[in-house]
Structure formats: structure tokens, C-alpha cells
Design brief:
The structure holds two protein chains of two kinds.
Chain A (H helix, E strand, L loop, with lengths): L21 E6 L6 H5 L2 H4 L4 E4 L5 E4 L6 E3 L6 H8 L5 H11 L3 E5 L12 H19 L6 E3 L1 E2 L5 H14 L4 E4 L13 H10 L3 E4 L14 H10 L4 H9 L2 H4 L5 E4 L6 H14 L12 H8 L2 E3 L3 H5 L1 H4 L4 E3 L13 H8 L5 H16 L6
Parallel strand pairs in A: 1-5, 5-6, 7-8, 8-9, 9-10, 11-12
Antiparallel strand pairs in A: 2-3, 3-4
Helix pairs in contact in A: 5-6, 6-7, 9-12, 11-12
Chain B lengths: L3 E5 L12 E7 L6 E9 L3 E5 L6 E7 L16 E2 L3 E2 L6 E5 L6
The chains are: A alpha/beta, B mainly beta.
Chain lengths: ~375, ~100
């Protein structure tokens, strides 16, 4: 199925581009042997890989996760185009941006979404450093348009602080943390040195979904949808609540953070129930905070979305300044190469000012892109 | 111990875009610890390498050809490892066909 419109909505004619557009969520396929070539030798044999058994069956093998059967199937048309997109070819990438009307982008890894799969913090850190050393170098010639994220493994806080300081000096504009920090949740005070370091750099934190825990959990009937909705997208709620309710935002009032690629339809409800819990369960709530949890999100949080008309209907509950659009290039759940059509279809009810903000100005302010006056 | 390693990387009959991409690394312990890489590149050639004294074997990884899209892997191309090869004591020169090591 194509990306542009649900089956009951015919695509509209391609509209003229009239907005400064920043995609706050894109990906790049790293060189296939990036980690094998660059990671410390002692970690190399523990990198994700494919194994083929005697019967020829292929499986994705990732440290800390159960092997996942890989099935062959064929894609066609724009599905195939997306599968071929995002390769490490900067000139081709610029052509793809132009084709879809994108002026600037925030770029996440692809295979690198597995950087936090291993339960070993040292292994996570080694993988993150490989990405951090490569991405800024690769996108350097287009740094005014392309802002790759700096990946940080948070479990070993002291090491994470050093990496935050290092990537800030390198010139990164945002820190990418896994959305799920298994067995060491983000509401624990032990993270305070990390929040302090990130706040000091001024870099926002991006919690991209599908990281920290393998989202490919369910199998069998409905597995693909269960994994997408429950094991990937809904995980975005956790860090939002952890940071807003635990006092992190109170202690670090300039810390900016947001879930990426989770959509926004869940966000207004989450803000509402955080406050409801804070008020009605006041006898259990600690710490007591000067502001409601939702107020901290509106002051410090943000969220990205692609094709989410329902979420946009709830924007007054969240705040238009907290919403960032992204095309998720080149992923199948994204909007490339029909982003302009999706924007036209989903943002018809937004005012001109609201469109300008969610399409580009909010992201430009957050990530430091130069927007046209 | 072996002194030289010669590997035929196979697939010489295919166009460059259709050949596997290989990475060869030395093994320095029976636990699978790896040392330096000794080859990065496509199939379709044969190479010979001096074997460092501390090396006891080698490991090969391969990726699908450049023109092959991994439609079944959202993470893009991931390597497949061949069986590890450990040198036996009296060998002076080892000659191997990479494709023979595929599982």
C-alpha cells in the first residue's frame, strides 16, 4: 500500500511548495560494514548479524534478543523505491530531499537503531561512538541542511556524560537516547549528572521509538501490527511520563526532550492522565511539584509525527509549539516521496501560522536550522 | 604455524555489482577474539596475506551485493559470518576458497 492516502481518500494534485520544511525524523542507511570496520576488535564478533542454518533459513541474530526469522518477499513501486532509499550517497539524498520538498532534516541511524540492543553498556557505548564519529563526518558537506543525531548509551552515566561532552564539541545538535532504558528507568536520580551535562550543552534529547528493547516481540497473527502499535509506538509514553512526573524537568528546567516517530495522537491523552493521576492520587504522589506534569511537557517537551490527522485535531491540548513534522525518509511508515500530499491532506484545518510552525519553524528553533525570514 | 594465507574470494564470473562484499579478519584466540582486518572488498579476485605470529585463524563476513536490496531487513544489509577457520600446526601456506566456507 502506498504512503500518501488511506484507501478511501484519493491523492490530491501535487501542491506548490510554500513552507520552509524541516523533517525532524529521517534515517540514513549506514555503510554496510561501518561497525565491523570501526568498532574495537573485542566487540566485533558481537555485532548484529545474519545466520543461515543448514536448511538455508535466515535469522537476524542480535545480542540480548531472541533470533528473528528473516523471510524473503518482494516489494514493488514506491515500496521498492523506499527500500532502496537512504543509502550513504549524499548527492542522491539531496535529490530525494528536493523531490519531496524538504529543506532540512534531522537524521537518525538505521542499522544503528540496534545500538542499544546489547545488555552490555560498554558494547552499547562502543557502537554509539562508531556512529557518532561517522555521521557528522559524512553529513559535514551539507551540515546547514542535515543534522545527524548523536547517539549516547545512558546506562553507564559517567561514560555517557563524557560522550555528551565529546559530541557537543564535535558539533552535534541533538542527543539520541533509547526510548526504553530497561531495568534502569529515566526517573531514577542517578541520571541527574547526565541531564545536567545535556542541559549544559543546550542539545535537546530525542527518544526515537524502536530502541532500547527489540520491538519485534509478537509473532503469529497480527504480529506486525502488534509490534508497530504496542511494542514500538506506545513506548514513547514512558520517557515522557518519567521526565515530567519525577521532578527531572523541575530540576533541569532548560532540558528539552521529545519522543520521535511515535505520532502525537496519544499525547493529549497522556498529558491529561498525568495530571489526573497527580491530583487524584495525591496521597501516593512523590515528589510534589510546583507545576502539573503536563505543564512541564508544554514547557520542555516536543513530539514528532508523520501522517497523524487525529493527533493534529488535539493540538490545542498539547500546544502547537511542541509539535514537529517529519517524513521518516526512507521508511515505509513515512511519507516520502509524497510528503507534500500528506501535508495537504492532514493539515487542511491548521492555520497558516500553525502550518509554518509544525512544518519547519519549531524544528528550526529546536535544532538550530536557519529558517528564511 | 601457517605463514601465508591465500584466499580466492569467488564470483569472478559475475559483474562487480553482483558480487558479495567481503571482510576478512584475523582470529587471535579460540574464544573468537578478533585482531586486525586483512581484507575489505568484493569477490572476483584472489589475495595472499602474511600471517602475523599471534594469529591462529581467520573469520570472514560477507554482505549481499551492492545492487541487492534487503527487502526483508528494515535495518538494511547485515553481515553473514562464515565458519571460523583455525590454522593447523605444520602448514606453511594455506589456500582457501571463501565460498567453500559458507555455511
Amino acid at each position: 500500500m502506498g504512503t500518501a492516502a488511506p484507501e478511501n481518500q484519493a491523492p490530491t494534485a501535487k501542491p506548490q511548495k510554500k513552507y520552509f520544511v524541516v523533517s525532524a525524523d529521517c534515517h540514513v542507511l549506514e555503510p554496510p560494514d561501518l561497525w565491523e570496520r570501526r568498532i574495537e576488535a573485542k566487540f566485533r564478533h558481537r555485532l548484529p548479524k545474519v545466520e543461515i542454518d543448514a536448511k538455508g533459513h535466515k535469522a537476524l541474530v542480535v545480542e540480548g534478543a531472541r533470533p528473528l526469522r528473516i523471510r524473503d518477499f518482494n516489494l514493488e513501486g514506491e515500496d521498492l523505491e523506499r527500500a532502496k532509499g537512504g543509502r550513504p550517497d549524499l548527492a542522491a539524498r539531496m535529490r530525494d530531499l528536493a523531490r519531496d520538498g524538504i529543506d532540512a532534516e534531522v537524521i537518525y541511524p538505521n542499522r544503528g537503531l540496534l545500538m542499544w540492543a546489547s545488555p552490555d553498556p560498554a558494547h552499547q557505548t562502543a557502537m554509539c561512538r562508531v556512529w557518532n564519529d561517522w555521521a557528522l563526518e559524512f553529513f559535514g558537506p551539507q551540515k546547514h541542511r542535515c543534522a545527524p543525531v548523536a547517539a549516547v548509551a545512558p546506562k553507564d552515566v559517567e561514560t555517557a556524560v563524557k560522550e555528551v561532552e565529546r559530541v557537543a564539541k564535535l558539533g552535534y545538535r541533538t542527543v539520541f537516547l533509547p526510548v526504553q532504558a530497561q531495568d534502569q528507568p529515566y526517573n531514577l536520580p542517578l541520571y541527574d549528572p547526565l541531564w545536567a551535562a545535556i542541559q549544559e550543552t543546550g542539545m535537546p534529547i530525542s527518544f526515537h521509538v524502536g530502541t532500547g528493547k527489540d520491538p519485534r516481540t509478537a509473532t503469529g497473527n497480527g504480529g506486525a501490527i502488534i509490534n508497530y502499535v504496542w511494542h514500538a509506538l506506545s513506548t514513547a509514553i514512558e520517557p515522557v511520563v518519567q521526565l515530567c512526573a519525577s521532578g527531572v524537568c523541575e530540576r533541569f528546567p532548560k532540558l528539552r526532550f521529545g519522543p520521535v516517530e511515535a505520532g502525537i495522537g496519544w499525547l493529549a491523552w497522556t498529558l491529561w492522565v498525568m495530571d489526573e493521576g497527580y491530583k487524584k492520587h495525591h496521597f501516593w504522589v512523590a515528589p510534589k511539584l510546583p507545576m502539573l506534569p503536563s505543564d512541564y511537557f508544554r514547557r520542555q517537551g516536543f513530539a514528532t509525527f508523520q501522517d497523524d490527522p487525529i493527533g493534529l485535531e488535539t493540538r490545542r491540548w498539547v500546544g502547537i509549539d511542541n509539535l514537529l513534522w517529519g517524513d521518516d525518509y526512507p521508511h515505509h511508515e513515512g511519507t516520502w516521496p509524497r510528503s507534500q500530499e500528506v501535508i495537504d491532506r492532514t493539515m487542511a484545518n491548521l492555520t497558516e501560522d500553525e502550518r509554518r510552525k509544525v512544518l519547519g519553524l519549531n524544528a528550526a528553533k529546536l535544532y538550530g536550522f536557519e529558517a528564511p525570514v | 604455524m601457517a605463514k601465508k594465507l591465500t584466499i580466492n574470494w569467488g564470483e569472478a564470473e559475475k559483474t562487480l555489482e553482483q558480487r558479495k562484499r567481503w571482510l576478512g579478519s584475523w582470529l587471535v584466540s579460540r574464544d573468537g577474539e578478533e585482531g586486525d582486518n586483512f581484507y575489505e572488498g568484493s569477490g572476483g579476485r584472489e589475495t595472499t596475506h602474511d600471517i602475523p605470529s599471534e594469529v591462529i585463524g581467520f573469520r570472514l563476513r560477507w554482505w549481499p551485493p551492492d545492487n541487492q536490496v534487503d527487502l526483508n531487513l528494515e535495518f538494511g544489509p547485515l553481515p553473514t559470518l562464515t565458519e571460523d577457520y583455525f590454522f593447523s600446526e605444520p602448514e606453511q601456506t594455506v589456500t582457501v576458497a571463501a565460498l567453500d566456507l559458507l555455511r
